[in-house]
Amino acid sequence: MTAPTLSTRSYGRGGLSVGPIGYGVAALGNLYAPRPDDVWPECVPAAWQAGIRYFDTAPHYGLGLAEERLGEGLRELPRDEFVLSTKVGRVLEPNPDYRPGDTDIANLFAVPATLRRRFDFSRDGVLRSVEDSLTRLGLDRIDVLFVHDPDEHEREALDGAFPALEELRSQGVIRSYGAGMNQSAILTRFVERTDLDIVMCAGRYTLLDPSAEADLLPAARERGVSVAVAAVFNSGILATDRPASTATFDYGAAPADLVARTERIADVADAYGVTVPQLAVQFPLRHPAVSTVVLGADSPAQITRNAALADVAVPGDLWAELEDSGLISRKAADA
Q1: Which residues, 6 or more positions from 7, have their beta carbon under 8 angstroms from its beta carbon?
Q2: How many other C-beta atoms can be found within 10 angstroms of the C-beta atom of residue 259?
Q3: DSSP of 134-164, one letter per residue?
Q4: Alpha-carbon span 17 to 326, nearest angstrom
Q5: What pairing do the DSSP bridges indicate for beta strands 90-94 and 115-119?
Q6: Torsion angle (degrees, nearest 10) of CA 289, 83, 24, 159
Q7: Helices 216-223 and 185-193, interaxial angle, to 10°?
Q8: Which of 70, 104, 266, 280 could be bridged to 109 by S-S, CB 3.0 to 4.6 A?
Q9: Residue 223 and residue 195 in contact, taking contact as beta carbons nearer than 8 Å
């Protein structure tokens, strides 16, 4: 079976291109729970078969386990046919307090806590992180490096990490660099104050929270910066056709008003034969600054399902009805 051909968009200024859907592999690092040995090895092949060619990981995910497993999945695939991003800012080092049986579940990953994370946004920290990631991935190069979650380390990132990434890009070691965060304010400042060319914004440009369109997206367009949008389901409320009774929004119980709003969105979409998850994925892709949507997945079946969410064309009349009723922002269409 031949993988489907997906439309691509440019990604950064280094000649990279990506499809509408990327695969974020935090689950390969045993996010929340261990992945069975007969499940995780099939995840990357399922993504490849579905036409996904962009893979995003980080040392943070499972204390390096996600990088190791992703590298194993990609090793036999043609290197020039996929884009790989990982992150810097957390250096992994031996955990002197480890005792047999200790796990990293406090940080959401079900792995032995033999290592610990140390925030390090210095030049040396970036270079060490890149070298360690290449070793874990077992690949010859990384295409994109993101400064990861520097919320409390903005100055260190500006003074240390970004100059180091600029050095790596100018030397041809990487193609592009940027930052990945779950807020838009600091990302916007990075866009304005550095020469990054890609940002990953999680949870702040969704059907229910389009706040990034007020600052990040205009700045990105002005500076020629590509945007990858992650967490488009806002941790769960938008992941199903109708919000479940246990629906979550940004990792907490979903407020009643957002549940009601999602129900109304579902009512409108249902009349057009469209689902809420399809809308959630395609909403950010309407904005000209957005290159791709990065989705996590727990299983091969979920990866296949996610990859298909961009395939169904959402009628313009549906977007217009949602906008006219005030259920979603107009600015994506008007940007």
Answers
A1: 19, 20
A2: 18
A3: HHHHT-S--SEEEEE--TT-HHHIIIIIHHH
A4: 34
A5: antiparallel
A6: -70
A7: 20
A8: 104
A9: no
Q: How many CB atoms lie within 10 A of CB 161?
A: 28
Give 34-55 pLDDT, tens digit per residue: 999 999 999 999 999 999 999 9
Structure tokens at 185: 């304010």
Does the reported pTM lie above 0.85?
A: yes
Q: What does DSSP say about strands 90-94 and 83-88: parallel, antiparallel, or unpaired?
A: unpaired
Cα–Cα distances (Å) from 230 to 53, 200, 294, in that order, read: 16, 7, 5
**Residue 62: CB atoms within 10 Å:** 28
What letter represents residue 136's amino acid? R
Query: What residues have CB less than 8 Å from 189, skipping those under 6 apart?
Result: 154
Which has the higher per-residue pLDDT, 2 or 232? 232
Asked if residues 262 and 243 have their Cβ atoms less than 8 Å apart, the reply is yes
The pLDDT tens digits of the residues spanning 281-290 come to: 999 999 999 9
Helix (H, G, I), strand (E, B) or coil at 178: strand
Q: Hey, what are 48's tokens?
A: 């490849």
SS3 for 33?
coil
Spatial distance between the Cα atoms of 108 and 104, rounded to a whole number of angstroms: 7
| Element holding 116 (H helix, E strand) | strand 115-119
Task: Identify residue 227 by its one-letter amino acid code.
Answer: V
Active site residues: 61
- In the predicted model, what is the mean pLDDT of residues 249-272? 97
The pLDDT of 78-105, averaged and rounded, is 98
Q: How confident is the model at residue 333 (pLDDT cuts 50, 70, 90)?
A: very low
In the CATH scheme, what is the homologous superfamily, with its name and number, of domain 9-243+278-313? NADP-dependent oxidoreductase domain (3.20.20.100)
Q: In the structure, what pLDDT confidence band is assigned to residue 330 with cuts at 50, 70 and 90? A: confident
Mean pLDDT of the region 320-329 = 96
Please give the residue that has the higher pLDDT: either 5 or 61: 61
Q: Tens digit of pLDDT for each residue in 118-144?
A: 999 999 999 999 999 999 999 999 999
CB 119 within 8 A of CB 89: yes
